[in-house]
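Private note to self, pasted from the team thread so I don't lose it. Backbone tokens:
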């Protein structure tokens, strides 16, 4: 039964948020170890979408092959994992008929001149996929005289499961009169939205002078080593009339959050609403976000995925659904989708899902919901989460907000499943451990928390996480550091209680 919810009437008791950076694969197949049912259903969905794309692109009378799906699947011709980026393309709209346009690549750096024919063929398929995400609205456009530039991102999954990040800035090219926008797209192995947003600022500044000015800057960037977390790389670039500029690019210290900016999420949704979205995501439900701005969809979806850290969303994830892929909303498996508002009528009839309107001050934030979102998380932990989120300020910087939000939801997972390592048993150090699910659940004192955890451990994100812990029981990282700190804190509290009891006696 699907409930139509009005957020103003919701008594939210709390929900949580947290997640990793670059684990968002546009339509990525889940890494489902031992989950053949969901994999089979996803495979069927991908086959259907492949046929759908084939038909739609054929109807447009395009001679190029259709873009690959499976998220969309990318094929890597070259590995530049230690570089800032693999390549930059400029995508323009070419008029085909009255009110119809076709996206085409008008500039590419570096040019692929030294590739084998098979590599070029795969590269063409990848570039076709990029066209879909640069202009997801489809072929219908009207020339514009004003257009506010916007920056957004997407993720492409390769056939081997690895991921590439696509960063786009769409703007109106210089000129007079009505004209179509163009998009600059950088493909990179690196997940760091803020860093590439600054790079786009430099690209846009040079584009206003001349397209030729982009080349030396991108060449310098391509030759520079990608900095370690917290480090800075300096790029020299010459601009006529300005001389040589030194551009400093700093990578955030918290690398697991460097692809995330929580400001848009908390601007569009109230704290209580964010918690309900988190609750749905943590149980791997189907969630659709509605907005007109591509940047809003992109930033909110990546932020929601980041709220799940140290767990990783394992299902379909498309931050901006292209028109040609809108049928993905009918998939029976979990997903996180971003859909532009003009396509709302094409998703509204779907049931058993959460549809979130990201319009600020919307009367119905939750256009469709299951109805139990406010009761999924334990009530006490919800209240603690809300209390921690209220520490953020309206004028918080991106980094300040990251700290408040990440610590709040990291704490939630520490309190619910932080004892996980104690329940992975191994005969010896050379063999993988085995997760003791029964003792793990039994060790949870709170009945409400135990009820939540029993549901959570059935998800694929938990299944993948526990497999990593079984392979390597001694884990490192932010989450496990917080677990150790929590354990030390509890030991001190216990020792203090014993000491105080002894003094009273």
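Design output:
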């Amino acid at each position: 039964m699907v409930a139509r919810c009005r957020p103003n009437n919701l008594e939210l008791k709390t929900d949580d948020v947290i997640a990793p950076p670059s684990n968002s694969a546009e339509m990525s197949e889940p890494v489902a170890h031992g989950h053949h049912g969901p994999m089979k259903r996803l495979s069927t969905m991908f086959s259907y979408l492949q046929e759908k794309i084939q038909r739609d692109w054929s109807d447009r009378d395009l001679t190029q092959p259709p873009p690959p799906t499976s998220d969309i699947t990318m094929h890597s011709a070259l590995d530049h994992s230690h570089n800032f980026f693999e390549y930059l393309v400029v995508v323009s709209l070419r008029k085909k008929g009255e009110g119809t346009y076709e996206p085409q690549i008008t500039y590419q750096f570096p040019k692929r001149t030294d590739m084998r024919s098979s590599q070029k063929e795969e590269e063409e398929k990848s570039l076709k996929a990029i066209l879909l995400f640069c202009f997801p609205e489809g072929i219908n456009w009207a020339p514009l005289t004003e257009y506010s530039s916007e920056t957004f991102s997407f993720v492409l999954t390769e056939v081997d499961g690895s991921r590439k990040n696509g960063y786009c800035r769409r703007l109106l090219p210089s000129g007079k009169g009505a004209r179509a926008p163009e998009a600059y797209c950088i493909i990179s192995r690196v997940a760091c939205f803020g860093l590439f947003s600054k790079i786009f600022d430099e690209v846009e500044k040079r584009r206003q002078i001349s397209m030729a000015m982009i080349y030396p800057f991108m060449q310098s960037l391509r030759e520079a080593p990608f900095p370690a977390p917290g480090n800075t790389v300096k790029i020299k670039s010459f601009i006529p009339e300005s001389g040589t500029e030194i551009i400093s690019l700093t990578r955030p210290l918290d690398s697991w959050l460097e692809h995330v900016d929580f400001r848009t999420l908390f601007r569009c949704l109230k704290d209580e609403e964010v918690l309900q979205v988190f609750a749905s995501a943590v149980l791997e439900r189907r969630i659709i976000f509605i907005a007109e701005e591509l940047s809003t969809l992109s930033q909110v979806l990546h932020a929601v995925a980041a709220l799940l850290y140290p767990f990783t969303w394992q299902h379909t994830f498309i931050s901006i659904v292209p028109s040609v892929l809108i049928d993905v909303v009918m998939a029976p498996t979990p997903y996180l989708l971003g859909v532009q508002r003009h396509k709302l009528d094409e998703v509204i009839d779907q049931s058993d899902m959460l549809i979130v309107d990201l319009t600020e001050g919307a009367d119905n934030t939750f256009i469709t919901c299951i109805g139990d979102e406010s009761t999924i998380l334990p009530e006490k932990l919800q209240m603690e989460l809300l209390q921690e989120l209220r520490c953020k300020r309206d004028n918080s910087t991106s980094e300040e907000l990251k700290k408040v939000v990440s610590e709040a939801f990291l704490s939630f997972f520490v309190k619910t499943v932080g004892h996980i390592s104690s329940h992975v048993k191994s005969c010896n150090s050379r063999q993988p451990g085995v997760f003791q699910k029964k003792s793990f659940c039994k060790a949870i004192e709170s009945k409400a928390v135990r009820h939540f955890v029993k549901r959570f451990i059935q998800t694929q994100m938990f299944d993948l996480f526990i497999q990593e812990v079984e392979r390597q029981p001694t884990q490192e990282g932010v989450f496990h550091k917080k677990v150790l700190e929590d354990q030390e804190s509890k030991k001190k509290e216990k020792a203090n209680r014993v000491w105080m009891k002894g003094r009273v006696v």
